[in-house]
Write a structure and sequence with these properties.
Layout (H helix, E strand, L loop, with lengths): L1 E5 L9 E7 L6 E2 L4 E6 L4 E5 L4 E5 L6 E3 L3 E6 L54 H9 L18 H10 L4 H14 L18 H16 L2 E9 L1 H18 L6 H14 L5 E4 L2 E4 L5 E3 L1 E3 L2 E3 L2 E2 L7 H16 L13 E5 L18 E5 L2 E8 L2 E15 L5 H16 L2 H5 L2
Parallel strand pairs: 12-16, 16-17
Antiparallel strand pairs: 1-8, 2-4, 2-7, 3-6, 4-5, 6-8, 9-19, 10-11, 12-15, 13-14, 17-19, 18-19
Helix pairs in contact: 6-7, 6-8
Length: 426
């Protein structure tokens, strides 16, 4: 029996995704609940597990855009790999031991329009590609053996063909002529290899990040106010209780939990900072969903600590560790990113001394933390060395007045410099 592998739903507003990578090869044995492939949407990257154990049959190549609910593969639950039929059946056979070194079995021939490149190149030398990519290459007269694949195990994708077209390499004669002409015009000692470039298509997540950041700059009256915080008291508490905290809760006590609790206390005093604009209305949130910015290889994501006012220091630290693990292993769900009312980003972990964070729309404010650095400061008329951190609050001036923003940030400073005030609520 063959069980269909479908692209799962990841949110009501998402209709399609990119099949980014197959984690298993065609014909390989997979186990139930084992990750099989990775999909990318404009919000999340997600590993999809197998629903059954059996032998994998891949129907859609990595790099293709697929609709939600589309069948991208099958699982042969009988446990035996199906052999390729003489009449061109569905399953692909294992390569014969007698085959030549360059022989590679073609993927399932499901597209009747699929045909070899026009230039008649030896099909055995061409990379293994899906019918849609072969059709595109044939239309433009491209020799696929000359296209460098960026998919899994060097598989050629549509994006690779497009980049090949833009590079102007599809015509051997024209390419050679341009190369020769270019060589004659170069000055002595010119090394063309030093001027090579790489063009890479933006991922859905990166495109969304770019559009949202641009929208935040264009559609808000964003302004930033700065302050500095003496981190001495928090560092002292952290050093004193870190071992006992870890022993009891199983997570390390970090600085972020202090800032989350301080931000929640300040938001309760200044509800306008926790509000947002919706058309001609101002919407005040009577709950505190704090987004924590986490960097990843694919871009910045902001998972949300829901009802942060109800979380203890240990719960905040545990949730952040869980989010970081999800981001690392592509398990972050769309629900983890939705509903935030305020955000915090920490550029200090990368060494940033000061920066201007950009609003995470439709939120009206975002707090930026930075590197802790020993600096000389005046305390009681004396110059002393203290561990100082610059903090920044970017806010939408359409809804948050400068007085509220400055006072809000000053309250965070007071809470961090005297953490006992958060406990005593003073």
């Amino acid at each position: 029996m063959r069980v269909e592998i479908k692209v799962p739903e990841v949110g009501e507003s998402i209709q399609e995704a990119i099949l980014a990578e197959w984690l298993k090869n065609d014909g390989e044995r997979i186990e139930k609940d084992e990750p099989v492939f990775v999909i990318e949407t404009d919000k999340v990257t997600l590993e999809v597990p197998a629903s059954e154990s059996g032998t994998l049959e891949i129907l859609v190549a990595a790099g293709e855009t697929v609709a939600i609910g589309a069948v991208v593969g099958k699982i042969d639950t009988s446990g035996a790999a199906a052999e390729k039929k003489p009449d061109g059946g569905e399953a692909a056979a294992e390569p014969s031991e007698k085959a030549g070194a360059g022989d590679v079995d073609e993927p399932p021939a499901r597209d009747p329009e699929s045909k070899p490149p026009k230039d008649g190149a030896d099909e055995r030398a061409a990379p293994v590609v899906p019918p849609s990519v072969r059709r595109m290459a044939a239309e433009h007269g491209i020799d696929l053996s000359r296209v460098e694949g960026t998919g899994r195990k060097g598989q050629v994708t549509k994006e690779d063909v497009v980049l090949h077209l833009k590079s102007g390499q599809e015509d051997d004669k024209d390419t050679d002529a341009v190369a020769e002409a270019g060589t004659e015009k170069q000055p002595p000692g010119h090394d063309k290899a030093q001027e090579e470039t790489t063009r890479k298509r933006m991922s859905p997540i990166r495109r969304t990040i770019a559009s949202r950041l641009l929208a935040a700059k264009q559609n808000t009256a964003m302004l930033t106010t700065f302050n500095e915080i003496d981190m001495g008291r928090v560092k002292s508490i952290r050093e004193e209780f870190k071992d006992a905290f870890f022993k009891r809760h199983g997570v390390r006590l970090g600085f972020m939990s202090f800032f989350v609790k301080a931000a929640v206390s300040a938001l309760q005093e200044f509800p306008v900072v926790n509000a947002e604009i919706d058309g001609d209305d101002m919407v005040y949130h009577h709950y505190y969903h704090v987004g924590i910015a986490i960097g990843s290889e694919k871009g910045l994501v902001v998972p949300v600590l829901r009802h942060a006012d109800r979380l203890s220091f240990a719960q905040v630290e545990s949730r952040i560790v869980e989010f970081a693990d999800k981001v690392k292993n592509n398990r972050l769900a769309l629900s983890d990113l939705e509903g935030g009312t305020f955000s915090i980003t920490n550029g200090g972990i990368y060494g940033s001394l000061m920066s201007t964070p950009i609003l995470n729309m439709p939120q009206s404010a975002i707090l930026g933390m930075h590197k802790i650095e020993d600096r000389p400061v005046a305390v009681d008329g004396q110059v002393v060395i203290r561990p100082m951190m610059y903090v920044a609050l970017s806010y939408d001036h359409r809804i948050v007045d400068g007085k509220d923003a400055v006072t809000f940030l000053r309250r965070i400073k007071e809470f961090i410099e005297n953490p006992e005030r958060m406990i005593l609520e003073i």
